[in-house]
Amino acid sequence: MRNLLHVFVNVFVFLVVLTTVRVFGQETFAPLIGGNTVAFVHLDLRKIEIDTIKSQAEKLGVDLLQHLHFDEKSLKATTRELKAELEKLDAFVRPQYETITKTLGIQELAVIADCNLLENNITAVLVVPLKDKTKDEAAILQSCSKTFLKMIFGHEVFISSVISGDFLLFPFLINNYNQQQQDEITKLTLIAWLQNMKPSKESLIQQGLQVLGQDEIKIVAALPENLKAILVSNTLPNDMSNDMSNDMLNEMPNEMPNEMPREIQGLFLFAAQKIEWAASSLSINALFSGENINNVLLTVKTPKRTDAVQLRGLMENAIEFGMNALRFSIEQEQSQKNVTPIPPLFFEFVKGMLRTLLPDIENDKLIFRLKGENVAVKQGIIASGGIVAALILPSVQAAREAGQRGQCVNKIKQIIIAFHNYHDVYQGLPPLYTVDTDGKPLHSWRVLILPFMEQAALYDRIRLNEPWDSEYNKQFHNIIIDIYRCSANPLAAQKNGLCCYSVIAGEGLTPAKEARTRKGKTLMQIADGTSNTLAIVEVKEPFCWMDPTADITLEELLKGINNKEGRVGSFHPYGINFGMFDGSVRPLSNNTSKEVLKALGTCNGHETVTVPY
Predict the structure, then answer these.
(1) Could you report the per-residue pLDDT of 286-302, keeping only the tens digit for each?
(2) Distance CA 144, CA 439 (A)
(3) In whole angstroms, what is the distance from residue 491 CA to residue 496 CA?
(4) 3-class state of residue 44 by DSSP
(5) What gap in Å lies between CA 227 and CA 118, rounded to an integer?
(6) Among 142, 557, 567, 607, which residue carries the largest CB count within 10 Å?
């Protein structure tokens, strides 16, 4: 029962936030909208009526309880507790809200996402206009805003805020680890973003705003060219994403192990290439007023009508494919359990419901509408709002992950290139680590290749005749070598000097046989071939970059990828990135078999293996 009350309270908070949106004057934020803006949300704080929202939340709760057939005694008790919870929330929300809107006169807010911010660990910024506000008023606003948002989200949302010119900025961080360390970097990033901002009245975001009316919620998301390239690359996690044409897409196999199905992949590829912007507005007042609803939920802009037609067709194909896959999966499970099968009517009904979400086509735009005027449709507004989130939020997330994947791939390639350059100078690969006269480890291969990664100055400072953890050499443990850190791994940001990349100890690289030996195996000694032998893999729990004994062994590799018993893994959703000794870098999925891992991890195993993509 208490959990049910919390649901009602959360609904109330959600409504408080949403009904503060009455769009007007988004020109206030025009100086912050440019060609790299990914998303813009405008909120109007002028016409919020907390008393009305409270009564609406209570009515919604009572209606739900009646729908669940609560008896009269339970209904009265739960309603009484619901009112008490709403009163507590009101006592906290109202003073903060009235301070912001009435005392300080803040009438509008915006949330902005930008490519340049995404590249610097900032998902988006909450922007509060400060024009004509004093320093004391700005300070009060900072405090009230943090308190108000902490209440809504249930935890501290922001680690820092920046006042610059006419705006107060609160950043939403992608990875919120090591807050004190990130605070200063975040502030500098926001200031640099403001200084380098080039506003554009012709930007994709501004184009999307022009089609929206005056509903309470206004959201526009855009796909600039650089973001499109990232999304395409993320959809195809190998080099096939370059110059991908429709003809090539048609030739792709129907079954793609460890990848999304061809029909779904085709939809995302085409959408990433062709969608210019998506705009949505929603009237909360209409939702609760009982008015007939036939509003436009979402408008999606493509370059031309033929693109819109093709995109809608791909959506139809995706629905058909998804329902067939669901039906096949359920029927297979039912046949194994020998139970009564679900009738075909069920699948046709679900398919029909999904098809009601298909858009109309108007010139070069896809128009998603809510059709009908009954209670089910009105309640469906909230669920249908997921269309907006499905198109906007995953795009930002995909862009971030794609950018991190690209950085990770590039870093692995740089390490392998350093191997090759080292090989050219010393006529052999670097050893796994050097040893002293007693055979004890001195320094890792990561230290030895520093001169080949533009780190010669650091290399010259390290005492190679002393162990890596000597009193003198300990001063270098916390130095950040960016090439050794995967940006998708949040653990690597918790402490300086951590490394996310390992070789297979004793395979491609072997320990030095005598003191100060600089030459390991040659590339010719990798009998299985450089294109069939692992050089670099990711580890999920980073280690000190100078540690010569931290690299994984073949035995550890064979425990699997992202297996809780092993060390090989990453925070990428698809598995890990791995590099071959020939310099190629590819993804490797979590379900890669032990046989394939062994074949790839050994350099003289003489196995025959098809390298997975």
Answers:
(1) 554 445 455 677 889 99
(2) 62
(3) 10
(4) strand
(5) 11
(6) 557
Run of H or E residues at 539? strand 534-544
Report long-range pairs for 97-100 (Cβ below 8 Å, ≥24 apart): 97/16, 97/48, 97/50, 97/148, 99/140, 99/144, 100/45, 100/141, 100/144, 100/145, 100/148
* DSSP for 440-476, written as a single string: -EEEEHHHHTGGGGT-HHHHHHS-TTS-TTSTTGGGG
Rounded Cα distance between 193 and 125, Å, is: 11
Among 180, 192, 50, smallest CA distance to 119 is for 192
pTM (2 d.p.)? 0.52
Q: Measure the CA–CA gap between 29 and 600, rounded to whole angstroms.
A: 53
Short-list 53, 55, 33, 45, CA closest to 144: 45
Burial (CB count within 10 angstroms: exposed 0-12, middle 13-18, buried 19+), residue 395: buried
475 has which bridge partners? none
What end-to-end distance do the CA atoms of the chain give, in Å?
49
Place of tokens 């009526």: 49
- Strand-pair partners of 162: 169
Say which residue the tokens 């998804």 belong to: 322
Report CA-CA distances (Å) from 364 to 96, 359, 385. 44, 12, 22
Distance (Å, rounded) from C-alpha 454 to C-alpha 418?
Answer: 10
Residue 161 to residue 173: CA distance in whole angstroms: 12
Q: How far is CA 4 from its chain centroid? A: 30
Q: Please give the Cα distance from 89 to 69 (Å, whole number).
A: 27
What is d(CA 314, CA 261) in angstroms, rounded to the nearest whole number? 13
Task: State which residues of the chain have pLDDT below 50.
Answer: 1-25, 178, 237-259, 288-290, 292, 373-396, 613
Rounded Cα–Cα distance for residues 280 and 571 (Å): 32
Q: Is 60 exposed, middle or buried (0-12, 13-18, 19+ CB in 10 A)?
A: middle
Which secondary-structure segment (H or E) carries 219? strand 217-222
Cβ atoms 557, 569 nearer than 8 A: no
Name the burial class of residue 176, with classes exposed (0-12), middle (13-18) and buried (19+) by CB atoms within 10 angstroms of its CB.
middle
Identity of residue 256:
M
Sign of CA dihedral 66, 69, 71, 74: negative
CB 527 within 8 A of CB 604: yes
Cα distances from 613 to residues 256, 415, 606, in angstroms, run 10, 21, 21
**Distance between CA atoms of residues 372 and 356, nearest Å:** 11
What confidence score (pLDDT) does residue 336 get? Answer: 61
Can you tell me which residue has the tokens 């329902």? Answer: 323
Map tokens 């297996």 to a residue. Answer: 563
Whether 139 and 412 have beta carbons less than 8 Å apart is answered as no
Q: Which pLDDT score is estimated for 335?
A: 66
Cβ atoms within 10 Å, residue 425: 11
Query: CA neighbours within 13 Å on the CB side: how many for 381?
Result: 24
